[in-house]
Design goal:
alpha/beta; 2-enoyl-CoA Hydratase, Chain A, domain 1; Rossmann fold; N-(1-d-carboxylethyl)-l-norvaline Dehydrogenase, domain 2
Length: 696
């Protein structure tokens, strides 16, 4: 036994308790303790064992502190097999969650009791692996093959009632975990305790047509990923093998995935999501209050911010310029909340309570006089934003945090119109603000540490992934976006089709290609950005004019039914517009450009090189503190494939020397655009990686 696992006797029942806070993760101490406890049970006089977890949950998964370290014996598969091999019955009690290795431990037991309200699942595919301690072999023997594969490949959490119906558990209980286990064990003692090993149950039948259909579905819904299909293979192959051989095949496939680049990328994303908000300079800094939030502007963004706050138990007062605008803002918020009700995320009663009790809409800034945090979300105009902040400076209480939701503009310039620039920061939400997880927290030159900490505290309350950014045009994400989008436009000028670029990048794993994104965001957004930057445009910059022509023609993308793609009843998701290629061909001819062909691999190579190069500049200049900050921004805000880890993790995987070579080769054609990032050159010269800059 260890301190994490205890053993006691209650009559004929052995009680084995896992007590490894906070979530009873299957650490080495827990694994070793379980082996010792079941060795004692095997030798002792007790007739039945009850296994349960102390605290708020059963075993909620692996111990993430052991990720990347040399494994220690006993392994989890050995532990589960050891429990299953017991000659006296073992009852497992599931409360809270039994996830990953936790569920596999439960499946190694002979009986399972689950508390109502508990959940179980096998989410390993989210980390690029499959259940490696018998999950793909035991679960199908209880549920049947297809339900088990669906649970494994979806990584979803199964509620108690469904678990009972699927035969994963034997009984449900409303009692405390130990009481539930003792009650079930006592019944076994009365009826005659019998061992019932899941591994000795008949293998599930295989419906090949159903397997093939699910395989095709997984290939589509998890495009480019290997864990889901490999997990399916483990379950299907195991059904045709003796149990021990099925376990061996599962382990072989597990190790293949464990050593894959996708697992490394997904683990990087997992840890990065947790580490990105941990800034050393904020350690010990206390944030200010965030209970009452004011929002200026009730358009799509302001309304979305208000809804994000409401859904996370924050009271909101929203300010609009007049009553007509206020009524429109309320209607927009009502629609967003109605959508949440429709999706089952919110009850009608809760929606009504939020609208009636937690939301106030007013037309006078004075209503925000005592609010803790005030977020400006008006039109993206420096003059308008300065006017708003000057007004807020007059009415906000001392110590109120004043935030701008600007996507590009200089937060220092906005802060300078107030008498309290130390209270000002940027909170760059992404649309729709109540859905998108990313929040860039922009630290201006004079932003006080406790104000920055308040931004992170608010992000946590809103369940956002918060990334600290410095001040520059576009901060982290939009600055990098501008660069890799320019690289795409350059390839179009030189001969590639926008549609080929979109296809190549979707095949790479991006959620959408840049031209489909432009249609979704609105061609007018890009046009306004170009107009804003026009006065500072360098003569060496290469811009295509076709997007401006689309704007002038009123072809603004999805909202008008036509942009790069045509959106109608025939193609609601869009089909390529043949006029686009003709429009671009005319521009090439006018400029005297002889088009050349690009392969899909060349498109991806250049696009990614531009993204990585600008990312390296952002880190080198301190706009992003660490490479992982860039990775999290691109993962959570810009559709970068999680299973590639982010652009700078991806750069490490393919080799920084290769990336630099691509940049230098492209610089032969366009030395202005393709200037290598000094940080990238330095890392290559020293043989270091971006990950070496992330710290412990």
């Amino acid at each position: 036994m260890t301190d994490s696992v205890s053993f006691e006797t209650q009559g004929d029942i052995a009680v084995i308790r896992i007590d490894h806070p906070p979530v009873n993760a299957a650490s080495h101490a827990v694994r070793a303790g379980l082996v010792a406890a079941f060795d004692r049970f095997a030798k002792g006089p007790e007739k039945v064992a009850v296994l349960y977890g102390a605290g708020r949950t059963f075993v909620a998964g692996a111990d993430i502190s052991e990720f990347g370290k040399t494994p220690k014996e006993p392994s989890l598969p050995d532990v589960v097999n050891h429990i299953e091999a017991q000659e006296k019955p073992v009852v497992c009690v599931i409360h809270g969650t039994a996830l990953g290795g936790g569920l596999e431990i439960a499946l190694g037991c002979h009986y399972r009791v689950m508390l109502r309200g508990a959940r179980l699942g096998l989410p390993e595919v989210l980390l690029g692996i499959l259940p490696g301690a018998g999950g793909t072999q035991r679960l199908p023997r209880l549920t049947g093959l297809m339900p088990a594969i669906e649970i494994i490949t979806s990584a979803r959490q199964v509620p108690a009632q469904e678990a009972l119906e699927l035969n994963i558990v034997d009984a449900l209980s409303d009692a405390e975990p130990l009481t539930a286990g003792l009650n079930f064990a006592t019944e076994l003692l009365v009826t005659g305790p019998k061992v019932r090993r899941v591994g000795e149950l008949p293998a599930p039948k295989v419906d090949q047509d159903a397997v093939d259909a699910l395989r095709a579905k997984l290939a589509k819904t998890h495009r480019g990923q290997i864990a889901q299909v490999t997990a399916l293979d483990a379950a299907v192959r195991g059904a045709a093998l003796p149990f021990a051989e099925g376990l061996a095949e599962e382990r072989r496939l597990f190790m293949e995935l464990f050593n894959s680049p996708q697992r490394a990328a997904l683990v990087h994303a997992f840890f990065g999501e947790r580490k990105v908000a941990q800034l050393p300079e904020l350690k010990g800094v206390q944030p200010r209050a965030t209970a009452q939030v004011g929002v200026i502007g009730g358009g799509t963004m302001g309304g979305g911010i208000a809804v994000a706050c409401l859904l996370n138990k924050l009271s909101v007062t929203l300010i609009e310029r007049d009553q007509t605008a206020a009524d429109k803002a309320r209607a927009g918020i009502e629609k967003m909340l109605a959508d949440s009700v429709k999706r089952g995320k919110l009850s009608p009663e809760k929606r009504d309570a939020l609208l009636n009790d937690a939301l106030t809409i007013a037309t006078d800034y004075a209503a925000l006089g005592q609010y803790d945090v005030i977020i400006e979300a008006v039109f993206e105009s420096m003059d308008v934003k300065k006017e708003v902040f000057a007004a807020l400076d007059r009415v906000a209480k001392p110590g109120a945090v004043l935030a701008t939701n600007t996507s590009y503009l200089d937060v220092n310039e906005i802060a300078a119109v107030t008498s309290r620039p130390e209270d000002v920061l940027g909170l760059h939400f992404f649309s729709p603000a109540h859905v998108m997880k990313l929040l860039e927290i922009v630290q201006a030159d004079k932003t006080a540490p406790e104000v920055l900490a308040t931004g992170f505290a608010l992000a946590k309350a809103l369940k956002k992934v918060a990334v600290r950014a410095g001040v520059c045009d576009g901060f982290i994400g939009n600055r990098i976006l501008k660069t890799y989008r320019a690289a795409a436009d350059h390839m179009v000028l030189d001969g590639a089709s926008p549609f080929q670029i979109d296809r190549a990048l979707v095949d790479f794993g991006m959620a959408m290609g840049p031209y489909a994104v432009a249609d979704l965001a609105g061609i007018d957004i890009g046009y306004m950005t170009r107009q804003r930057l026009l006065p500072t445009k360098d003569p060496r910059d290469r811009w295509g004019d076709w997007a401006d022509k689309l704007y002038e023609l009123g072809r603004l993308g999805r909202k008008t039914g036509r942009g790069y793609y045509i959106y109608d009843d025939e193609s609601p998701r869009g089909r390529p517009d043949p006029e686009i290629d003709a429009m671009i061909a005319e521009e090439r001819a006018r400029r005297g450009i002889t088009p050349r062909e690009f392969t899909d691999d060349q498109i991806v190579e250049r696009y990614m090189a531009a993204m990585i190069n600008e990312s390296a500049k952002v880190v080198g200049e301190g706009i992003a503190k660490r490479p992982l900050d860039v990775d999290m921004v691109l993962l959570f805000g810009y559709g970068f494939p999680r299973w590639r880890g982010g652009p700078l993790h991806y750069a490490d995987q393919i080799g920084l020397d290769k990336v630099l070579a691509t940049i230098k080769a492209a610089a032969q054609e366009d030395p202005y655009f393709w200037q290598p990032a000094p940080l990238l050159e330095e890392l290559v010269a020293k043989g270091r990686s971006f990950s070496s800059l992330n710290g412990e």
